[in-house]
Design goal:
By secondary structure, this protein is of the alpha/beta class. 33% of the residues lie in helices and 28% in strands. Helix 3 crosses helix 10 (357-372).
């Protein structure tokens, strides 16, 4: 059995059928067929997701997760087997994640008896709105007696053959914010009869910049980015409404809540100053990934240590964090950077790609986790 060829075959097929969150119908059907052939008990989860369960001698269960969804992105990789879904692409490596977990499922199927039970979670909608939270809400971790969970993500900022890991906080808590400024429109030649929403929005934008620089402890980390500001009708009309949208990121809930609180306070001050109305809508999204200290030390003491890169925390977000609120776990960043072959494009890029050698690195990572936790 050539596991590398098996994973390559899975990737070729899955790469051609990227589907958006909670619409992964073809992907789910393919995964179900493969897992049933390998002898797993297969159950639906989170609308289009799948749980593949294999009972061991003990009910204690170790879980592994792969995300399934693609991106709204037109592919430009020049691959032999590109996406056949126009305007959609596996530009974040989820086709690779699924292929590696299918390879691990195949490997486990060759072992007659497992000492511990195994749950493989094929999860939809990681890119949004967050399939992991739905999986957790269905009581999966209690039902299957999950003790630990593991996941990985392909990552072009780390050299191929290496993987990144860190103890504690690894990714940021994230949220979105929408702000609507309601003023009073009028003729541009009569500004004294109007309330200019654009002027108010401009002051909001500049005032928000002081939150991180003046309201947070300098050794704390936080990001507040206003990405869009939309308003106004014509050059000679005072804008009546302006809408701003942005994102908030932080490595602690305290910092995250401080940013939100100060935004509201700034809004209230400018409302009073300009006699306008400012409405703010926050959408709290993914929490921080927090890697378990004991499990990290276990990896460092194993044969994997020589391939490990100690990572700094990243301001990106990942819904794997919801699982770690239920049980301890680890999230690995699996290196794909290969300068010689041109595999240097970032995640979410139309030319993101990686070499087939990555599959065996990911599989060996999971195999060694199995050894360390005495799954077989």
């Amino acid at each position: 059995m050539d596991l590398n060829e098996i994973m390559k075959s899975h990737r070729r097929y899955l790469h051609q059928i990227p589907e958006l969150g909670f619409c992964e119908f073809k992907t789910s059907a393919y995964l179900k067929e493969q897992l049933l052939q390998l002898g797993y008990e297969v159950y639906p989860t989170a609308k289009t997701g799948l749980l593949a369960y294999r009972r061991g001698e003990s009910e204690t269960c170790i879980a592994f997760r792969a995300d399934m969804d693609g991106l709204s992105l037109t592919e430009e990789t020049q691959m032999e087997h590109p996406s056949i879904h126009e305007g959609q692409m596996h530009g974040c490596g989820h086709d690779g994640h699924m292929s590696i977990l299918l390879g691990f499922a195949t490997y486990l199927s060759t072992i007659n008896e497992l000492k511990k039970s195994v749950l493989l979670i094929f999860q939809p909608a990681e890119e949004g709105p967050g399939g992991a939270e739905v999986v957790v809400s269905e009581g999966v971790f209690t039902k299957y007696h999950v003790q630990y969970i593991f996941g990985l993500h392909l990552y072009p900022e780390i050299e191929e053959g290496k993987f990144g890991l860190r103890k504690g906080v690894m990714t940021a808590q994230t949220g979105e914010v929408d702000i609507k400024v309601q003023g009073r429109g009028g003729h541009g030649a009569l500004p004294h009869l109007s309330t200019d929403a654009l002027v108010i929005a401009s002051q909001l934008l500049m005032s928000y910049q002081t939150i991180v620089s003046r309201n947070l402890n300098p050794i704390s980390c936080g990001v507040l980015t206003i990405g869009t500001m939309d308003g106004g009708e014509r050059r000679n009309i005072i804008a009546e409404e302006v809408e701003l949208t942005g994102t908030i990121r932080a490595f602690s809930e305290e910092v995250y809540e401080t940013i939100k609180r100060r935004m509201v306070e700034i809004n209230q001050g400018l409302e009073s100053m300009f006699k306008a109305q400012i409405t703010t809508t926050f959408r709290d999204m993914y929490p921080c990934i927090v890697n378990d200290a004991h499990l990290v030390e276990l990896i460092k003491s194993s044969s994997l240590a020589s391939s490990m890169v100690e990572m700094d925390p990243m301001m990106i977000a990942e819904d794997f964090a919801y699982y770690q609120k239920e049980v301890p776990g680890l999230f690995f960043m699996l290196g794909t950077r290969n300068e010689e072959r041109g595999f240097t494009y970032p995640l979410h890029h139309s030319k993101f790609n990686f070499s087939d050698e990555v599959f065996m690195r990911g599989l060996k990572l999971y195999q060694e986790v199995g050894n360390l936790l005495k799954i077989y």
